[in-house]
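User
Take a look at the entry that follows and flag anything odd:
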Amino acid sequence: MSYLVATMKKMKAENLHGVFMHDFRLTKNHANEQIDVTKSADNFDLIEHGELSKSAIMDYIQSKRSSKRAVRKDAVVLDEWIISSDQSFFADKSPEQIRGYFQTAVDWFGQKYGRSNLQYAVIHMDETTPHMHLGIVPINEDGSLSSKKMFDRASLQSVQADLPQYLQEHGYDVQRGVQGQKKAHLTTKEYKAVQAENEVIKHDLATVYVDAAIAYHGKEPRDGRDALLQQLEQESILEIGKWIQKLFKLVQKTIRDLKKREKKLADGLKKLEQREEAVKKKEQAFDKFLADYQEPSAGQQANIYLLNVQNNVVRPARELYEAVKGVDDEKQVGAPKAPELTIKQDLSMSKGRSR
């Protein structure tokens, strides 16, 4: 008995263009070397999608959501399931039987998650193993857009357990993958199923890394997105995982550096505010000094002068007169003698000058 392959990828709005380019073969330049373009005409759809686009998906979401708020940029708007099996399962199947196998899977998903939520179901016959890309918009019964709610742990387990049982009931000899078992050796069928699953996982991991790297750097790689995706898909799952870890570590380091710069900037702003506050206080003190300052009146000036004379800080005007009197006598012979001045007369003369 063959094994069912059923894996899911979560898509944001920004991922839809690349997904549709690959799923609907909208380009002839494929990064995946396993695609045989001479067989692409054998690909077929089980759900009519027309010219499906990002805007069509977003319009559908707006028409079904109960909330009128804008969809968040990081919201999962599409869950894509890849349904397949091992090559031996398809080896003896006619085209009608292959179509029936995938149509039965579509019917099961439609009954469980809402037929209108199924946006496309395209079967690729031009790769190593036939497989289906099934796009489901995660609109729940309560009108919420939530991939976590639609495909929670119990729901994912149901896909792995109930879908193969449903396929068996409709005549398809598949079973779920080995769960919780440790075997030293795998049968040929089990090995092929694991290999097919690994290829899907590798594709998923590589897609996650490429999309995350483009989002982080803000631009596509030099050789283009598809070239980088092809390069990564040639690596082992472990190596791709290491690439993803490196990217996440780089993002974490960048976040830490930004936080340090933010703290340094905050400290600088705080010091600047403190300096501005100190200058403001000095300005206020100076303004107060100017407001309080008043020039002494003429009477106050006379009292200050008298006090300075008494304390021998300045010489009285009479002594100044005595010092210069001889010079005047030499120039003015016969001039009448100047009268003696008292300190009180000195003061009165000073007051007169100040006026």
Remarks:
- Residues 237-292 form the longest helix (56 residues).
